[in-house]
Amino acid sequence: MSRFVPMRFVDVHIEGRFWRERLETVLARTIPSQHVQLAEHGILESLTLPKPPPPLRFPRNEHNFTVQVFWDSDVGKWIEAASYALSHRRDPEIEAKIETIIDDLEKAQAPDGYLNCWYLQREPEKRWTNLRDNHELYNLGHLLEGAIAYFLATGRRRLLTMLERYVDHVRETFGPGAGQKRGYCGHQEIELALVRLYRLTGERKHLELASYFIDERGRQPHYFDQEAADRGDDPKKFWAKSYEYNQSHKPVREQDRVVGHAVRAMYMYSAMADLAAELSDDSLKRACELLWQDVMASKIYITSGLGPAAANEGFTEAYDLPNDTAYAETCASVALIFWAQRMLHLDLDGKYADVLEQALFNGALTGLSRDGEHYFYSNPLDSDGRHRRWAWHTCPCCTMNASRLVASVGGYFVSHSDDAIAFHLYGGIATSVTLKSGKVTLRETSDYPWSGDIRIELEPEQAAEFTLKLRIPGWSRAAKASVNGQAIAVEPSTTNGYLSISRKWQAGDVVELDLPMPPERVYAHPSVRMDVGRVALKRGPLVYCVEQVDNAEGPVQRLRLPRRSKVGIKRRSDLFDGIVVLAAEALRLDDREWSDTLYRREPPAEERVTLTALPYYLWSNREKGSMTVWLAEA
Amino acid sequence: MSRFVPMRFVDVHIEGRFWRERLETVLARTIPSQHVQLAEHGILESLTLPKPPPPLRFPRNEHNFTVQVFWDSDVGKWIEAASYALSHRRDPEIEAKIETIIDDLEKAQAPDGYLNCWYLQREPEKRWTNLRDNHELYNLGHLLEGAIAYFLATGRRRLLTMLERYVDHVRETFGPGAGQKRGYCGHQEIELALVRLYRLTGERKHLELASYFIDERGRQPHYFDQEAADRGDDPKKFWAKSYEYNQSHKPVREQDRVVGHAVRAMYMYSAMADLAAELSDDSLKRACELLWQDVMASKIYITSGLGPAAANEGFTEAYDLPNDTAYAETCASVALIFWAQRMLHLDLDGKYADVLEQALFNGALTGLSRDGEHYFYSNPLDSDGRHRRWAWHTCPCCTMNASRLVASVGGYFVSHSDDAIAFHLYGGIATSVTLKSGKVTLRETSDYPWSGDIRIELEPEQAAEFTLKLRIPGWSRAAKASVNGQAIAVEPSTTNGYLSISRKWQAGDVVELDLPMPPERVYAHPSVRMDVGRVALKRGPLVYCVEQVDNAEGPVQRLRLPRRSKVGIKRRSDLFDGIVVLAAEALRLDDREWSDTLYRREPPAEERVTLTALPYYLWSNREKGSMTVWLAEA
């Protein structure tokens, strides 16, 4: 069996109402408004290297660090997101804006190919002196991903060619050779961009450079120690205290615990999985599997949020998953999708697709508002109402991670090998796949994630034998399937989470899949101290929360859900163009008979109410109020 | 009836085992070890104004602020604590250390009386240019309290005289007159120190200066605005964002909501209550009462911790009382004791003594370790075990607040007026009070707080009529009392929390008070979202917690306490020289049948265990482990 490769997003037409709405919102509102924000916040101007340099908009913090050092990456990510939009439909206005950016970058690029607007403008003599903190290679990585996307969308190669020159300069600068620096970036990203460049161009030198950065990471003598000493800094005075922060505390193949900054970790693991695939490197694959096991066993929120702590924007101890202070950066969940997709394509094991789906519908999608112009950076699972979406952020990384994800979401639905087609997600798509046996046109129709009734029509150009693999989500029970109305026994035909149907397919064949979606209670491992005595509600891939606007007066944290209370569903056509909410009889603590005291001997009285729960990704799109995912159980 | 005044701590001999142990520990270990720490951390050296100034040990943060600007206050507080110790028993070594400090300060003092070691050494031209941030008057306040305590302990007046000169300089510098600055300190403290100086010297000018600072605070045009503009800073760019941070957002008499930095707030309210008493100022008293009501109704932890947020070291919204991230600075609970004592002496209302006692035994006492050499700065009510006591702190304010409180704890037990004696606390003390009718020797014997059996022997020099007032704590039910074995009906004779016994007292009269101390369950107001479905345990004045070391394996947060489970007491002579723990049948979530998954549909199994609860103030004195105050109720 040949390897499965994902369909390119541009070849997957989104037809279902759920993703159609998100995609249209991103195309029509998010991407244009992000350009406005980049302009308003001085990020676009920074590409012109204005002289004299304007004062910093974001002054250096006590670690002598300013977010402005990674402005190039924000531009790169916007180009990437905008280019995905252009792949859906060309737009001269957006293209003109990208061309202007490329003009600026072209003027800025140094004769030797170096291209980092922060250093070129403000401290040209200091380039490559602080890889640990200053994101030079990270910026290149995002610009490169943007350039590749732009090339694929428009055929225009100018930016890509510029960046290939920059990559050549990087290749000369870094490596084990005489006069080269044995460095790597403090924020991983260049590695996966280089793999992408390799896949586009077929030039092995890009894969080798990515591999060099991954292999070098964490080796002794430690590059960041040497680099700090060269700057005249005390290497021991690293502000983040430990190289766990950027996962360079030991060589990557020796890492088996997920530590440090969550986005850095996810980008690195994604690159490791890429290299494991491209180089058939089992030691990298094994490291990825151990790290995956560690995060899934004890370090991921039910929403797929990652990294509980604000202090390091990252991981702490096993089972440390506070709800109200959860950092759970949107970028980390987006990056988890990248990693999960790569793991999935190593073995086609549905456990990876389960996490991909869960991160997509919950951890990542919550980052983008309904109107497409507001964002969450951190994603608590409990709020008194003070946590709200914002229109922009000092560090706008999450905004463009949301837009580039949604604009390319079609790329996560279907993969194929020579003789098989695998559906990972459902929600209404149409595509054509070319197998060894010929072309097959596919249309998947469903109202997923609101319903688990899925219909797939197949149109092979000529009748052909191949395997159709349908993901049976880990959350589903009692799935049913049929081909042309003939039932299939799901369980015996399902391996690693995929139902395989091998037969000679004819044009007009119809597969139906029924994934029942009863509301479910979910409990956390007893070691998650914050969730003891608490229950969360899920339905299908969606995690639900209780938001104050749907639950009358008082904080929602006053609600308790009796264990025996039946949770039902309600289709609400009046909410967000039609969604499914959950409803259950609950108890609300009553404060009417409390006097001015804050504490007393008698427990509060309780009244019976009907609780309404909303998909988590939709919270904070209406009026301000409290929210919680984990309800006290009575 | 004349006003009640507290007995001086030095006139109250501590005999009971609870406070005797704490006092001896502070005298023998805490105060000497704090001097060692002050030396080791460069704080003592800073008083010598070394030239050239050594590099900062604590570099300026992003707000251009370093904790070193308030090192003088740490020295002042240590002198105060050490002097209280000297009042208990003189010690030539400690006195020599204080004299050395006074030598240094004497050399440092400027000809005009100004005495701030930070400014004199590092930026003499900038004195009085940043009252908002730089603590000059705060430092003076603490030095002054230290000087007064040292004078009272030893009769040595040198430091006090130096500081009176400094106060004179301050009086010339600040005021409404031509050429004067209409300023006040960003961190309140000078005000209550000036009242103390007034009470010592009888010089009204000190009271007037305190009153000036309080009255001026929050007036428009705002002094901190003008001062920032004079420095060339944008007043709008105050790093704390709002003048609520230092309670100067409006004139103090208009304040009715507790806001901002908790220690600043408590020191200010203490000074306001002092001035209300000294000036019979009802508007100040009224403001204090409204602020008291606000904090007690919605902004205080059950432990009397104050200020949930680390960001402002202070208050947030009503009912926002997170347990695991509670800041609840030890200093704030110590300062609450100061405020409560002052409020108590305005009206002799036991509600203030209730809070004083609660803050003493829980919020404040927890700040000092059993060994007397380790501290808590913040006091969460829930921990996974990572929160531990430390030997010193970047900002060591809490260390000396703990030592000065314990070293002077006798001052909180008894007050008297011309013809009445009032007991606020119990625990084994002996003292002599001089009433209009003559001297009365008193001995209160009890094992409080472990037992509520209290015996008071009175020895008037000659038989005399006066009133004995015994506080009946707010937490007590069914108190019983007798005089010479004759029962008294407690309830009818109790007003505002004090049982009054007026009679002709004879030498040898014995009053017995029985305050039953059954273990109690306490519930929080339903609006405290973190405590919904949770219960805390108390006994007498002590709040209990569950610590891992007493509760076998696994985090204590796994325990659930059924509502019908009986909570009993156990006297444990093996623990901390003999304490009372609570015990109850509980349920522990069991993870033995959990696989590697973090979330699942089935609730965890539970096993029956016996839960042991420990007084909160004692936690983190043994091996590392989890702790919680609020238990999930089953």
Radius of gyration over C-alpha positions of chain A, nearest whole angstrom = 25 Å
Q: Give the largest interface pair and sizes.
A: A-B, 58 and 57 residues
Structural class of chain A: alpha+beta
Number of helices of chain A: 16
Shape of chain A: globular
How many structurally independent domains of chain A? 4
First and last CA, distance of chain A: 52 Å
Mean pLDDT of chain A: 96
Q: What fraction of the residues of chain A are assigned to beta strands by DSSP?
A: 15-25%
Helix content, binned percent of chain A: 25-40%
Q: What oligomeric state do these chains adopt?
A: homodimer
Largest sheet data of chain A: 7 strands, antiparallel
Report low-confidence residues of chain A grouped into runs of 5 or more. none
Give a quick rundown of the structure:
2 copies of one chain form a homodimer. Chain A is an alpha+beta fold. The first copy, chain A, is built from 16 helices and 24 strands.
Structure report:
Two copies of one chain form a homodimer. Chain A is of the alpha+beta class. Chain A has four domains: 199 residues, no CATH class; 156 residues, Glycosyltransferase (Alpha/alpha barrel), CATH 1.50.10; 101 residues, Sandwich (Immunoglobulin-like); 114 residues, no CATH class. Helices cover 35% and strands 20% of the residues of chain A. In chain A, the strands form three sheets. The first copy, chain A, has a seven-stranded antiparallel sheet. In chain A, helix 7 packs parallel to helix 9 and helix 12 runs parallel beside helix 14. The radius of gyration of chain A is 25 Å and the shape is globular.
